[in-house]
Amino acid sequence: MSVRVLVVDDSAxxxxxISAVLRQDPQIEVVGHAxxxxxxxxxxxxxxxxxxxxDVEMPNMNGLEFLEKIMRLRPTPVIMxxxxxxxxxSVTLRALECGAFDCVAKxxxxxxxxxxxxxEKVRAAAKSRMQPRSFAPAEPVTPxxxxxxxxxxRVVAIGSSTGGVEALIAVLSRFPANCPPVLITQHMPATxxxxxxxxxxxLCAPEVAEAExxxxxxxxxxxxxxGSAHLEIANPSRPRCRLHDGERVSGHRPSAxxxxxxxxxxxxxxxxxxxxxxxxxxxxxxxxEMRQAGAETIGQDEASCIVYGMPKVAFEIGAVSRQLSLGKxxxxxxxxxxxxxxxxx
Length: 345
Prior knowledge:
Keywords: Chemotaxis, Cytoplasm, Hydrolase, Phosphoprotein. It comes from Acidiphilium rubrum. This is Protein-glutamate methylesterase/protein-glutamine glutaminase. It is found in: Cytoplasm. By secondary structure, the protein is α/β, with parallel strands linked by helices. The protein has 2 domains: 125 residues, 3-Layer(aba) Sandwich (Rossmann fold), CATH 3.40.50.2300; 190 residues, Methylesterase CheB, C-terminal domain (Rossmann fold, 3-Layer(aba) Sandwich), CATH 3.40.50. Helix content is 37%, strand content 20%. The chain is built from 13 helices and 14 strands. Strands 8-9-7-6-12-13-14 form a 7-stranded parallel sheet, sandwiched between helices. A 5-stranded parallel sheet has the order 2-1-3-4-5, with helices on both faces. The longest helix has 14 residues. It is elongated, with a radius of gyration of 20 Å.
């Protein structure tokens, strides 16, 4: 059966462009269009779509408000379509926290790469499990600050994609201010990563920043790959971030395979790798290299994933030494990288 999609956007041109991209996929049927949330509400009742594409900025009611109504009254996978602006990025990130399946950026300066992934994301959305969401703004969690955690010198590398915004907040908000150094590759448009790093920095006790080339990799700091560059680790004696704009790897730049592979080569057994929810197979091979280099490797389990894609492939090829639910991930990472835990062992 084909996936039935409702396209919601106040621009007739954009509605046609989205529809044209989706119709290239024989497994997708565009069943209707709406120019604003009022039209969309009627169309949803009449057409019962499997997936909705939703513009972030619309008249009568913004996309975020409408998304919250959808998730309360008629939970349906929603893909947010956002302009590449700071305001668009901020609203889109909030939408991902509130239950949007994923986002795509509207084409800008002739760059259609992210937009061309829309059919794949629609197919994945139709198969996804709708998780219960909270619509209250996320509040900072108070991690353990009583001094019991002391980093043991290991570096943590995390790869994530679809569903990763929620997953990363759930994990990182549990970390203490002196957490192990963490490097993250999250598949996300370039304009969004800076806003996401700032969002994480407000919600988490450690310092979170979009990675810059040459940054020292230090305890108490979390480094998020920019959406336009690969993030690697360099210099084993004094680890630093290294950014480069090489070819896409596993279809992505930044790529989790690139991050994990560099950690395997440079840090080896003094590292811990984590692969979270996401479509495709990016990160699986790099995580396997980490495990072969002696690192502990963790995969998010199927039950807690929005999309059990990247962790599934990693598990199937033997890259994952342990599968954990999202709720257990932070505590396990901290125990594994704790100097006190190592002394007890």
